[in-house]
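Example record

The entry below shows one chain as it appears in the dataset: sequence first, then structure tokens.
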Amino acid sequence: MEPQPEESTPRSGNPAGNYGPGTQIVALAIFLGASALVAWLGAFATVNNVNGWYVTADKAPWTPANGVFGPVWTLLYAAMAVAAWLVWRRRVPESRPALVTYGIQLILNLLWTPVFFGLYPVLGTTALWLAFAIILALIVAVAFTVLRFGPISTAAGLLLLPYITWIVFASSLNLWAALHN
């Protein structure tokens, strides 16, 4: 009887998916660039409004100082990019749908900032409730991303846990703002 070849699982085989170092570096740069682009686009809505209407807004008592958000989001966006890269480099059938889910959450992430900060001067409290609906959808999308990333790369799934924790926290700030402004 001949030995049967082992079936490949998401955790077996070459973790680099047979990609060369140059390809891996370029891919990591692309994932980091996509996260940076989302952060940069979100900053447009934030920069004019964080020192505008948001200064006088009724904020939750547990709201951190404005200076906390930038460093936290920088770390979270970097962790998100590395997590996506870890999944991409595995080259398993599950990688593609996992990365699609990642893309969906990235789009929701991008939508939240202009709705919360940018639309408030136009729509008032309605904008805050729309932003709350978006952040709830974002939480669900990130949870699905974690569930898809984890079986492919444990490290990738773990890298997203601080992100989901932060957006749950941010949703509490959003809810307070919607209820009190």
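Notes for this example: Helices lie at 21-49, 53-56, 66-90, 95-118, 120-123, 125-152, 154-159, 161-180. Residues 1-13 have pLDDT under 50 and may be disordered.
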